[in-house]
Structures are given as structure tokens and as C-alpha cells.
Amino acid sequence: MAKPRILSGIQPSGALHLGNYFGMMKPSIELQQKGECFYFIADYHSMTSLFDAKQRRQNVLDVALDFLSLGIDPEKTVFFRQSDVPEVTELTWLLSTVTPMGLLERCHSYKDKTARGISPNHALFAYPVLMAADILIYDSNIVPVGQDQKQHLEVTRDIAIKFNQTYGETFVLPDPMIRSDVATVPGTDGQKMSKSYGNTIEIFGSQKPIRKKFMGIVTDSRGPDEPKPDAEKNLALQMYRLIASESEYQEAFEKLRDGKMGYGDLKKTLFQACWDHFEPARKKREELQANLDYVNEILKKGAEKARTIATSVVDRAKSNSGLK
Ligand code: ADP
Ligand code: TRP
Fold first, then answer.
1. Which of 17, 71, 236, 304 is the one with CA 20 to 30 A from 228?
2. Taking the CA atoms of the chain, what radius of gyration do you get in angstroms?
3. What is the pLDDT of residues 34-82, one digit of tens each?
């Protein structure tokens, strides 16, 4: 059987943190073994809530560098910038015409964003239709996303079904792959790690501020020689579990439990493990940063491949709906 086509979009939203890495980047990188991956940087989407051109350019470059340095293989994966395939906006229009208002009015993400004070422009409301076009335009089979995007996948399927019923078989129906097995990474204060909560630990950056963030992880005040039988609840140990081997984790847990280690030492160990884990990616990122022409070339080639498919799917939709 042919490998499934796996597609996902990544918002260009600033410096990556450990939550993004374990929750999204790492699983996306691993999926490269499972199918033909199409990953794009969702710069059109970023226009719904970011209005600073310079910042957008920087964010897009940062995501490209982050993804490539962490393990996207441009030989295997079609990696591109959304706006380099402008046909997606044309398809958005076609899909809009079969999208009932009620479908969009029910979307939680729109309601959540406006509740957080993001001004409700038309594009923010219509965002799920652009997302549907992102997916349908590549005949995607599988779409890996976080739980928060599940409803958008349902909307995508509803729109595709409606179009197919109206104009005959046109779109492949995609299946979501919800990353429910990926744990929510806690931030330094114990809430979900998120930019919105100011509790993040970044992956890339200089050593001193990152180390400071690790040392700032909230712990209780028990000293090194006090037994800590409930150490599993400790935030630093939970983070260590994501990065350490099972035996390293066990060793740290037993030392804490038996009063042979303090939380300060645990945080130092955790910092060092993370710093070492990302050492190769840091090196790669520096190399890429010094060779931006190469990065732009990867995105350009990715867009060319993506565009070939996008054009044929849009042609199919135009032909079936009587535009051609
Ligand atoms: P933030 O909450 O910092 O704004 P985003 O919403 O931009 O992060 O997250 C991008 C992706 O990273 C999401 O799809 C989500 O799956 C993943 N992610 C973000 N924070 C975490 C976390 N703390 N734990 C696990 N996954 C996360
Ligand atoms: N909306 C997604 C998010 O906020 C990003 C995204 C845009 C996407 N288009 C997509 C994800 C298509 C999967 C498929 O994370």
C-alpha cells in the first residue's frame, strides 16, 4: 500500500519552548518514517492576529530554522511556507461557498481567541476554512494535531463532504491523528507550559538565561537529606522524565525518595540533560543561520513540489464546480 500523505501546519509564533518540542515538534519529526510528510509554516494564518511585518518575517525564519535543526529532513519531507502556494486562498473561496455560517459560529477556537482580547476580524472567523483548504489541497490522508485543533478537523471533513455532495467526488476525506498520548509538559510554575502564561523554558538561546529558568522551577522547601517519597509530583522530576532514560529517571527518583539528593541538584541535572540533548540541534541551527540561502532554497523547492499537487487539486475543484 502507498504511504499515507501526512500534512500539518505550524504557526510561526516565536521562540520554541519545551512544551512545543515534546508536544508537537518531536512527534512530527518521528512521523517522517511513517508516510509522505507535508509540513508548512502557516504564515497566512498568522495574519489573523499578528500585525507586524518585521516580526512575521523573523518568526517564519525562526520556525524554519527550528524545524530543520531539530530533524526535518528536506529530502524526505516537503517543507514549505504556506503563502508560497497562493492557490490555497483560491480554494478557500470555493470552500467558503459551501460552508454554513453555523459551522464556523460553533468553533471554540474563535470564541476562545476573542475572549482573550484578540480583535475579531473576518479572517479570524473564517480561519477554519483556510485550514480546510490547507488540508484538502494536498489530498491529505492524515493530519497530526493537538487536541485543540480537533474541531477544525471536523469542520474540514464537513466542508469536504458538502462540496463532494454538491459537485461530485472532489476531495479526499482526511483523518485526524490526535496526539492524546503526548503528555502536557508543565511549565516552571506547574501550569501547562505556554507562552501565554510566561512559564516557558526555551530550547534555543544562550546558556545563562536558560539555566536560570530551570533553576526557577517551583519546588517545595525540603532539604537534600530529607526523604521525599512523593518525588513523582515534583515538576523538575516530571520534566526530567521526558528527557532522561528510564534508568536515569529511576536513579534520580530513588535518590530524592531516600533523602540523598535535593531539588537544587535535580534541577542542575535536568538543565545539563536538556542542554546536552539539544547540543546537536544548536550546532545545526548555527550552521543554518550562517547559510540562509540554503534554508530559502529548501523552502522554495518544497513550495514547488507542494504547488504541483495544489494546482491539480484546485483544477479538479474548479472543473467539478463549473468554473472550468
Ligand atoms: P503556546 O501555548 O505556548 O502559545 P502553541 O499553542 O503555539 O503554544 O502550541 C503549538 C503546539 O505545541 C500545539 O499544537 C501543542 O500541541 C504544542 N504544545 C504547546 N504547549 C504544550 C505543552 N505544554 N505540552 C505539550 N504540548 C504543547
Ligand atoms: N491551526 C493550526 C494551529 O493553530 C495550524 C494549522 C494551520 C494547521 N493549518 C493547518 C494544522 C492544517 C494542521 C493542518 O496549530
1. 17
2. 22
3. 999 999 999 999 999 899 999 999 999 999 999 999 999 999 999 999 9
- Partners of residue 8 on adjacent β-strands: 39
- Residue 205's region, left for phi above 0, alpha for psi from -120 to 50, else beta, is left
> pTM for this one?
0.92
- State the Cα–Cα distance between residues 163 and 175, nearest whole angstrom: 17
Q: Whose CA is nearest to atom 10 of ligand 2?
A: 9
Model confidence over 66-125: pLDDT tens digits? Answer: 999 999 999 999 999 999 999 999 999 999 999 999 999 999 989 988 898 888 899 999
Contact 240, 252 (CB under 8 A): yes
Q: How far is the CA of 220 from the centre of ligand 1 (A)?
A: 26
Is ligand 1 within 6 A of the CB of residue 11? yes
Q: Which amino acids are annotated catalytic?
A: 113, 192, 195
Residues 6+ apart with CB under 8 A from 218: 188, 189, 190, 235
Pocket of ligand 2 contains residue 11 by CB under 6 Å: yes
**What ligand has the least distance to the C-alpha of 41?**
2
Any atom of ligand 2 within 6 Å of the Cβ of 88 = no
Q: List the domains of the chain with CATH numbers.
A: 5-185+292-320 (3.40.50.620), 205-277 (1.10.240.10)
Is any ligand 2 atom within 6 A of the Cβ of residue 99? no
Distance from residue 219's CA to the centre of ligand 2 (Å): 35
